[in-house]
Amino acid sequence: MLFPNEEEKIKYSESFLLGTVPFQIEQAFVLDGQKKTKSTFKPGEEIILAVLYKPFSASVKTAQFIWTVYSPDGAKYEPLSKIASLKLRPNNNDVQTKYIKAPIPKDAPGGTYKFQATIINGSFKETSDVVNFTVNKGFSVKISTSRSIVVPGEKVVFTPIVSGGVPPYSFFWEFDTGETSSSQSVAFVFSQAGDRTVTLTVTDSSTPTPLSRSDKVKITVNE
Length: 223
Known about the structure:
Number of helices: 1
Number of strands: 17
Structural class: mainly beta
Helix content: under 10%
Radius of gyration: 26 Å
Order of helices and strands: HEEEEEEEEEEEEEEEEE
Low-confidence stretches: 9-19
Shape: rod-shaped
Oligomer: single chain
CATH topology of the largest domain: Immunoglobulin-like
């Protein structure tokens, strides 16, 4: 559980020792529609946001459960957030689960989302740790060039066009002359005539395994 300050931590400890803590959050986690652990989803896929908790007090019959999801820009993401007043089973001190299940909206922005569960009863509130999950939209990479036909000594600017994936991205440029660069955009001067090939590989921040996409362009260097 998270404590906003030391005073709240002491207050919770005292309540727990006195037996007045009605419940305790054990863990929040994210599953797919088959109830298997998953951290990366595509729009349209089903997601389960679950919270494990343990009830302690037989006098507490219901509590307010809050599922809060924050989008990659930090704002509350309403389509996957929910508040519900649910019954507890306080006569059984075993760990119990409450969850919501919904499809990732088709228009959900790509990136890393944060999920946090909260349980409230009266003045008592428990908040879980933050759990991250990723929405990975179609990932593609294309190279844009300032020109495709030049003469030796003329500069060409290469700019990546990245769609989808999970930012932030890393960039790796390879020129058939042997030079490389990890800048997002690069300017290059070809000194020799001929057809030159430039390759860009972009890697995103998908979890648990980042995804990579590549593109190539040909620059004609005329005498």
